[in-house]
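Suppose you are handed a protein chain with no further information: no name, no annotation, nothing but its sequence. What can you learn? This example shows the usual starting point.
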Amino acid sequence: MKSHFLKQGILVSTLMMISALTIFIISSCNKEEMDKDEAVINDNYYVKYVISCSYPRIFSNWSVTTPEGNYTKNNYQTRHWEQTYGPAKKGFKCEVQVGNGEPTIEIYVSKNQEPFALKTTKTGMSASYTINF
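A reasonable first move is to predict its three-dimensional structure. Written in structure tokens, the prediction is:
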């Protein structure tokens, strides 16, 4: 009779261990999937605008889009301007408009803690890029 209860106890213990491991494995898989989904939702992007031209040319009256709205600088002539804005979300449209002059416009984007990457460069009065990575 003792051996019957002993075998039954070992069987119950084994089934409990298997159940616990199964629950642990299933919950681990779901957590990884959730982490991936959260990473996509929580990505932050930073936009760096660089507007410049070489001597003797200058530019003035420019506007750029920021996550908080537009930034505009009027009645100021210069050869170089740069500024970083953020955080922004995926799908944000980065735009630059220059009123006077034809400078080189560069738009850089950084995702989370990654370094900035040049996304577009153009000589002229406007440039744009939509964040899509």
